[in-house]
Design a protein that fits this description.
The structure is a single chain. The chain contains 7 helices and 5 strands. The protein is of the alpha+beta class and about 290 residues long. It has a domain at about 140-280: 60s Ribosomal Protein L30, Chain: A, CATH 3.30.1330. Strands 1-2-5-3-4 form a 5-stranded mixed beta sheet. A hairpin with a 2-residue loop joins strand 1 (about 150-155) and strand 2 (about 155-165). Helix 1 packs antiparallel against helix 2 and helix 2 packs antiparallel against helix 7. The chain is flat and about 120 Å long.
């Protein structure tokens, strides 16, 4: 009896060990697979950062070259005007008021030169911010299907384009619950940059729509934009003063609406991250004084 009981316990212990060993190997393989995925994702992000850094350096060099050309031109004009003033003064051709006018023109050139330098510096800072913002958003949205969400710098600002397949049901302005995950991730990044404003644009394809609640594609695109803005404010805490909602209907397509693939691409909502317009206009006003 004692021998039988011991063998039974031994068999149970061996079975538990085999189960534990199999589970451990499965967990180890899973961790290794996740580590390989992380390494691939890290390599991709490092490659993106490197290419964007090269692009930013090229733009910076271009601005430096343009600034140098403008400064050289201003120096040439200043020397030319100074020489003319000296010659006219020696020949007693210009009056005192005329000479004073030329001096003021030279002062204006100096002010414009400073304004150009400040403007170039502001543009370079904005380009750097856009690059950092784009890379941060891409990292935050790395687990989202690239076909549904794209992030890019276009026209000097950051565009986040979300397909209507992810955001809405067909012909509806009601946001899908699964889309809230994407909007929450975008909100976290945007809330870290309160110096920037947000423009939300709704876009449709060219297929007409007319229902009890929606008159046409203008109506649908505008309602979708306001639905997104309303959610960003109410659930994710983005200040309403920073946001603008607009409908673009079918009239700003990314690709032709000639087939279903093109129409699917054009049905989208874009979140555009912008510099505050009042600060931009203030910068221009200061440069013109």
């Amino acid at each position: 009896m004692t021998s039988c009981v011991s063998k039974k316990k031994l068999a149970e212990a061996q079975a538990e060990y085999s189960t534990f060993k199999a589970n451990s190997e499965n967990n180890l393989n899973k961790v290794r697979s996740e580590l390989r995925d992380c390494d691939k994702s890290k390599a991709g992000l490092e490659s993106d950062l490197k290419s964007k850094t090269i692009e930013l350096d090229a733009k910076s060099k271009q601005w430096v070259a343009q600034t140098k050309a403008l400064e050289d031109q201003i120096d040439y004009l200043k020397k030319t005007n100074t020489n003319l003033l000296d010659r006219m003064s020696d020949l007693s051709i210009v009056s005192k008021s005329g000479a004073e006018s030329i001096r003021k023109s030279l002062e204006t050139l100096n002010d414009q030169s400073k304004y150009i330098k400040d403007l170039n510096s502001s543009v370079q800072r904005k380009d750097s911010l856009n690059l950092v913002l784009m890379m941060t958003l891409k990292r935050s949205l790395a687990d989202i299907n690239d076909e549904d969400v794209t992030v890019e710098v276009k026209k000097g600002v950051v565009y986040i384009s979300i397909s209507d397949k992810m955001l809405f049901q067909s012909g509806s302005a009601m946001i899908n619950p699964r889309a809230e995950v994407v909007l929450e991730k975008v909100s976290r990044v945007v809330n870290d940059h309160k110096e920037l404003d947000i423009l939300v644009e709704g876009h449709t394809d060219n297929v007409p729509i007319s229902t009890i609640c929606l008159m046409d594609n203008w109506d649908l695109s505008a309602k979708r934009a306001t639905s997104v803005v309303r959610l960003l404010q109410a659930k994710f805490g983005i200040s309403p003063e920073r946001m603008t909602a607009g409908g673009r209907s079918e009239f700003v397509p990314k690709v032709p609406n000639s087939n279903e693939i093109g129409r699917r691409t054009n049905r989208r909502t874009e979140i555009i991250v912008l510099p505050k317009l009042d600060q931009f206009f203030q910068m221009l006003a200061n440069g013109q004084k």
